[in-house]
Design brief:
Blueprint lengths: L12 E2 L3 E7 L3 H8 L12 E7 L5 E11 L2 E7 L3 H9 L8 E4 L5 E4 L12 E2 L5 E4 L8 E4 L8 H13 L36 H9 L5 E7 L10 E3 L4 E8 L2 E7 L8 E2 L2 E2 L1 E3 L8
Antiparallel strand pairs: 1-7, 2-5, 2-6, 3-4, 4-5, 7-10, 8-9, 9-10, 11-14, 11-17, 12-13, 12-15, 13-14, 15-16
Length: 285
């Protein structure tokens, strides 16, 4: 197996770990507003945001991009999590709400290292083929995420580079062992404008808001370069003072939750030195 991507700049390749879920019905917006951690009601038609679902104790169950298609339809681009389990969990809270949750198993999710044709920032766009494109890049590293359209090339190297850029921008990619472990503040999801402390109630809202308004955020996300050391979510990060744990990794890129003040020094993972790199900006929506 070679380690060079076959994709040319602008070529679309499959993103198999993003799953699309459609929420539709008269109460879709209200239901999402009551369950998810960001302000869904504040989205205009055609806009999207980073969002998530929390436990009552304020721990992240799932992260996703959420698009308001119209007044009765949302599309969720679920990162990493099992869509069947996610839908089953949400279904327990539907009660009499007029909303259906359906996995869109027949759509292709693809990415390209190129500026979107039309989509910009939080505004998605539908292209000539009926596919929806999202702008998920920064100034120095443009990226287009496309939902729908034709088949996409299977390119593990390009897909790995995509995930590494997610981590570089501070977008955690949570494997199962890291679900229900972290609060939004510990994952520094404020950098992505992914949660609200001022909208109405949602699961975990009390803990999220109290942590914010009382200034109790003691730990946050750090980007690490691990060199040749292979690390996984949950691995311990040691330091001369303090320390933390790895949240996720892709190649030499890793995200860890570490103390914020003072920042720990002399970091090691698995007995090897880890270098702290700056988190990139560009994914806030």
């Amino acid at each position: 197996m070679h380690d060079k991507s076959d994709a040319l700049p602008g070529d679309f390749f499959a993103i198999p770990d993003i799953h699309v879920i459609r929420m539709h019905g008269r109460d879709a917006i209200a239901f999402a507003q009551a369950q998810f951690m960001n302000d869904v009601a504040g989205l205009a038609t055609g806009e999207w945001q980073w969002n998530g679902w929390l436990t009552p104790k304020g721990r992240v169950v799932a992260l996703f991009a959420l698009l308001r298609v119209d007044d009765g339809t949302l599309r969720l681009l679920l990162l990493d999590a099992d869509p069947t389990g996610f839908i089953a969990g949400l279904q327990r809270f539907v009660f009499r709400s007029k909303v259906t949750l359906t996995p869109e198993t027949d759509v292709t999710v693809a990415g390209a290292f190129a500026t979107p044709a039309t989509a910009r920032g939080a505004l998605a766009a539908v292209d000539a083929e009926g596919a929806t494109e999202f702008d998920v890049g920064g100034t120095a590293d443009p990226r287009t995420l496309r939902v729908g359209g034709g088949p996409a090339t299977i390119d593990p190297v390009a897909h790995g580079r995509w995930r590494a850029l997610d981590l570089a921008h501070g977008l955690p990619r949570l494997e199962p062992s890291q679900l229900e472990q972290w609060t939004p503040q510990q994952l520094s999801l404020d950098r992505l404008r992914a949660f609200s402390v001022r909208k109405g109630c949602y699961p975990g809202q009390e803990i999220v808001a109290r942590t914010h308004f009382l200034g109790q955020v003691k730990r946050g996300l750090a980007r690490l370069h691990t060199g040749a050391t292979v690390v996984s979510g949950g691995d311990e990060v040691t330091a001369t003072s303090g320390g933390g744990r790895i949240v996720c990794s892709q190649g030499a890129e890793a995200l860890a939750v570490l103390p914020l003040d003072p920042a720990p020094a002399g970091l090691q993972v698995g007995g090897a030195t880890a270098e702290v790199l700056p988190l990139l900006d560009g994914l806030a929506r």
